[in-house]
Amino acid sequence: MKKPTVILTDNRSGKSYEYDVLDGTRGPSVVDLRSFFADTGMFTYDPGYTSTASCTSQITFIDGTKGELRYRGIPIEELATEHCYLETCYLLLKGMLPSKESLQDFDLELRHRAFLHEGLTKLFNAFPDNAHPMATLSAAVTALASFYDDHLNVSNEEEYQEMARRLIAKIPTIAAFAYRHSLGIPFIQPDIDLSFTKNFLTMMRAYPGGKMHLGPKGHEEIKEVEVRALDTIFTLHADHEQNASTTVVRGVASTGAHPYVAISSGISALWGRAHGGANESVIAQLEMIGSVENVKKYIAKAKDPNDPFRLMGFGHRVYKNFDPRAKILKTLQDELKEELHLDSRLMEIAGEIEEIALSDEYFISRNLYPNIDFYTGIILTALKIPKTMFTPIFVIGRTVGWITQWIEFKKDPTSKIARPRQLYTGE
């Protein structure tokens, strides 16, 4: 069988160039243009990399047309409903779901690695009380590179795994400390008797001495339904192929920088409103709209080409159908409505927007379906997590994906330093 190729012809010179077509196990094929400049003296032009595959990967697959997302070949629907977040972490890092014994060992190791070096805790005092937790989180992760400089030259699987597990365990502690510092209240140390997700909620919400905060009905403990909801959100955020922040992580990795510096760069990229910061913007927008009566006015503004207003939480760069993660959260939101006492006013506004958008030709024709950010905010609000912590929650879930992508990049013998070129239009 003849090898598939693509022939490109330059109609100025009449010369033709032939390039191999490479097939993956799923998704579109790619044209191998690695010799294009050497052959033609030209660059390809693709702003935003809308048609460019930057690497090969065996981690995550997305079919945006079908609304499909898989980690290591397993559908996200199965992972989010039948497995916990730590099982998903193990799957991404090791390529398989853990046995019961392996999961127990993995869980126990993360519990013990969750504590921060006392020297690192002093860093938080350098930030003002009103510092956004994302700024503190990014700086603290960079600082981790100085405490674990031995991870700069990891060379074998055991070292990769130690580096990855250390960071996955410490990110929730750093995030919780950043939040508590922003409030000017004492830190709550990790508790090795608690699971990964429950421990994070405890570090966020407990008073010193281990007591939980007092709600309107007196002593209030963290409910298992709250743990399940947040654990599901972590799973849905664990990885998402070559998105903006992951591309940044791989790009920084290509320079030979410390892996924690690469992850810190990903955290900074995620903070952007067009990326992970969108979930914070969704709730802020729902609060701005204020009531169901105002929804139609803002829908009209979103449809007006001369109005800069943009409806947050709709549309996605890759998904041209319903975001599968959004479907899962929509179902979860409906299930937890009574148990978590979801904000009825925000839900009514969001429900009205959703109903109009899913039946309006303007949104349908532009593939503007609700994405994951549209639903996370309401659930996180019910978990007593403030808007400023929405993106750090995203970071906690995504850390394992970034680290797995970093490892894959470092193991790839064909990897090179990232160095795109340009179409110069200056003087």
Automatic annotation (TrEMBL):
Family per record: Belongs to the citrate synthase family.
PANTHER family (UniProt xref): CITRATE SYNTHASE (PTHR42871)
Residue positions of the active site: H316, D373
UniProt entry keywords in alphabetical sequence: Transferase, Tricarboxylic acid cycle
One function term, GO molecular function aspect: citrate synthase activity
Species annotation: Sulfurovum lithotrophicum
Highest rank taxon of the organism: Bacteria
GO CC annotation terms, alphabetical: cytoplasm
Example GO BP: tricarboxylic acid cycle
Name by which UniProt lists this protein: Citrate synthase
Presence of the UniProt keyword Transferase in the record: yes
Annotated Gene3D superfamilies: 2.20.28.60, Citrate Synthase, domain 1, Cytochrome P450-Terp, domain 2
InterPro entries for the chain: Citrate_synth-like_lrg_a-sub, Citrate_synth-like_sm_a-sub, Citrate_synthase, Citrate_synthase_AS, Citrate_synthase_bac-typ, Citrate_synthase_sf, Citrate_synthase_typ-I
Catalytic activity: oxaloacetate + acetyl-CoA + H2O = citrate + CoA + H(+)
Pathway: Carbohydrate metabolism; tricarboxylic acid cycle; isocitrate from oxaloacetate: step 1/2
